[in-house]
Every structure is written in C-alpha cells, then in structure tokens.
C-alpha cells in the first residue's frame, strides 16, 4: 500500500505549508531572542500571541523522520505538544493511518493556529485521526485514552521537562520521546536533556544533529 505521506492531498498541503514557513526565519529568531531563558508559565498566553503568525515548523527531513519513527514503533497513540499549523501533525497522522489506525492527540495554545491546523488536516484528509485540544498542554494532555507510543515535544522548550513529568505515567514501555529545536533553544532545553540522558531517570537518549537539533529518547 502506498504511504499516505506520498498521497497527492497530503503532499499538496505540506508543500504549501513548507513554502510559507520558509519565509519566516528572521521572525523566529526575533521571537527566540525576545523570550529566551526561563519563562514563567503565566507568560504562556503572551508568548502564544506573539507567535500567532509564525509557523515554527519541523523541517521536511524532521517530518520524514517522525513518519518513519511512528511507523517503525507501530504507534497507535501519538501525543504531540505544539500543533502550530499542523505540519508535524500531518506527518504523525499519516504514519498512524499507515499503521492501521489509531489516534494523534495534539495540543495548541493559540486558538487561531489550532483553527488553521484543523483546516490543513481536513484538506490533507487526516482530520479523523487527530484530537486537537486547545489550551495549556499541562492541562489538555492529562486525560489520555491509553499508553503513549510516541511523544513529540515541539512547543516551548522551557516546558519540555515539566510536561514530560506529567506524561511519564502514560508512557508505554519502549515509548519514543522526540524533542525538537534542542540546539536552537539550547539554554531552554538544558534541564530536559540532562534528565532524559540520565538512565537513572528511566530513559536512554541520543542527540540527532539535523535541522535545529533533535533529541531521541526511549522509555526503558
């Protein structure tokens, strides 16, 4: 069976989104400089508003890797922190469909981005596989229907470790945890990387040097 990722509808949406996202480099760097370092959770709405028009996407090669990891894991339940306009969500949902079905639960703080992501998922023909929740991820991701096979952390890096700790009881043995932008936001991700690279915490982690830095960990 051909990969859903290569379907005409999926490719059309992804090509359009990647083309639009390629124009935003300076805006993303300005956003990083404005909100660098540790941020208080109370500022989340302010940050989300400032980033409302910025795609902040995974790179095409990262999207392809997410698809491959989800397929290889045979993931039935995927959880994503940071939907944005839905580029990574489309890759994850395509893989879940090709695994025979399942669910992608994703969350986005900015309502405007969530609405755009829903439209993009519908255009790609993948909306039926996705539960998109709007709000604070520390709250929206507490109610899950089963063990997590793959977790993608692709929102604000300062929240990676707090969110991982909330979700740990839901991680299946052998679950994959993927963290994006760990080089671009190195300072903000330091505590998270220290945690998942210490086997005493129940993970084995490895940096993957592509795009803005990826980290891959497995739940032992």
From TrEMBL:
This enzyme's EC code(s): 2.1.1.-
Domain of life of the organism encoding this protein: Bacteria
Record's keyword annotation contains Nucleus: no
InterPro entries: SAM-dependent_MTases_sf, SAM_O-MeTrfase
One Gene Ontology term from the biological process aspect of the record: methylation
Pfam families hit by this protein: Methyltransf_24
Keywords per UniProt: Methyltransferase, S-adenosyl-L-methionine, Transferase
Gene3D superfamilies: Vaccinia Virus protein VP39
PROSITE patterns attached to this UniProt entry: SAM_OMT_I
GO molecular function, one term: methyltransferase activity
TM ranges: none
Enzyme class name: transferase
Database matches in PANTHER family: PUTATIVE (AFU_ORTHOLOGUE AFUA_6G01830)-RELATED
UniProt name for this protein: Class I SAM-dependent methyltransferase
Species in which this protein is naturally found: Frankia umida
């Amino acid at each position: 069976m051909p990969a859903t990722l290569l379907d005409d509808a999926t490719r059309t949406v992804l090509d359009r989104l990647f083309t639009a996202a390629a124009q935003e480099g300076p805006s993303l760097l300005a956003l990083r400089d404005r909100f660098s370092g540790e941020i208080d959770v109370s500022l989340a709405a302010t940050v989300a508003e400032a980033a409302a028009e910025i795609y902040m996407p995974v790179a095409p090669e990262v999207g392809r890797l997410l698809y491959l990891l989800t397929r290889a894991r045979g993931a039935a339940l995927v959880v994503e922190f940071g939907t944005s306009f839905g580029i990574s969500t489309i890759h994850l949902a395509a893989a879940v469909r090709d695994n025979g079905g399942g669910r992608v639960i994703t969350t986005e703080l900015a309502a405007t981005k969530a609405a755009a992501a829903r439209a993009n998922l519908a255009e790609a023909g993948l909306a039926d596989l996705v539960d998109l929740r709007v709000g604070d991820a520390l709250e929206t991701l507490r109610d899950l229907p089963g063990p997590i096979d793959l977790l993608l952390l692709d929102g604000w890096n300062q929240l990676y470790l707090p969110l991982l700790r909330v979700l740990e009881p839901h991680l299946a043995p052998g679950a994959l945890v993927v963290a994006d932008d760990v080089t671009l936001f190195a300072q903000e991700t330091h505590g998270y990387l220290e945690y998942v690279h210490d086997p005493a915490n129940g993970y084995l982690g490895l940096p993957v040097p592509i795009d803005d830095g990826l980290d891959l960990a497995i739940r032992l």
